Amino acid sequence: MNDRDPRRTVVALFAGAFVLFLIVTALMFRHEIEGIRSAKADRASQVREIPDFRLTDQAGKEVRRRDLVGNVWIAGLVSTSGGETATVEAMEKIVERLATVPGFRAVLVTTRPELDTAEHLAKYVAARPHPHVWVALTGEPARVADLARIGLGAAVRFVEDVPRIEGGDGVGIVDRKGRLRATLDVNEDRFVEGALTAIKHALAER
Predict the structure, then answer these.
(1) Dihedral angle over CA of 101, 90, 136, 131, nearest 10
(2) Domain spans in the chain, listed from the N-terminal domain onward
(3) Least enclosed by CB within 10 Å: which of 72, 78, 111, 129?
(4) Which residues sit opposite 78 in a β-bridge?
């Protein structure tokens, strides 16, 4: 063994460490890329078209999907008899911040269309902050159930062939093209921040 062997050993160790560093870095980069792709896929899977519908608003006017196209809306389920109060209270916080923004609407879909007539909904909306922003929808139970189930992902069960919409604490963010872009839980600590971010992104799109 000569005096160069220790130097060769050091060089070999450094070379090995450098190769290991490159391998670990490549694996971390690949993992990060896969995470980004997965997040994009998750977001894409949440985007779905709101189905066409023909319902009645609180003023007794017919409302179809095309009537809301061009607006960004936050949508939730409600019953004027007192159900889904957490959902409405959470939506009110968003309305308070965005009431003056052109093209923003807050849409309530009744879970009890057999009870929530246009007149009932009109009184309910009148008691909300900034009533002009709100659109409350009712109509034939089957049609309301289709919008709640297909459009907003609500659970619907049937009792003697009559659809019963299960209320929940989720709200949807719908873009200008009538696509559901996000579903948020109103009980989450950062709900307001998340909802405002999703709505502002949708408003910025054309």
Answers:
(1) -50
(2) 1-46, 49-204
(3) 129
(4) 110
Q: Are 198 and 184 in contact (CB under 8 A)?
A: yes
Burial string for 154-187 (b: 16+ CB within 10 Å, else e) reads bebeeeeeebbbebbbbbbbbbbebebbbebebe
**What is the maximal distance between C-alpha atoms in the chain?**
99
Non-local CB neighbours of 81 within 8 Å, separated by 6+ positions: 112, 115
DSSP per position, 40-67: HHHHHHH-EEPPP-EEE-TTS-EEEHHH
Hey, how many other C-beta atoms are within 10 angstroms of the C-beta on 50?
A: 22
89 burial via Cβ count (<10 Å: 0-12, 13-18, 19+) = exposed
Query: Tens of pLDDT along the chain (206 residues)?
Result: 455 566 677 666 777 777 777 676 766 656 555 544 444 434 444 578 999 999 999 999 999 999 999 999 999 999 987 766 899 999 999 999 999 999 999 999 999 999 999 999 999 999 999 999 999 999 999 999 999 999 999 999 988 888 889 878 899 999 999 999 999 999 999 999 999 999 999 999 97
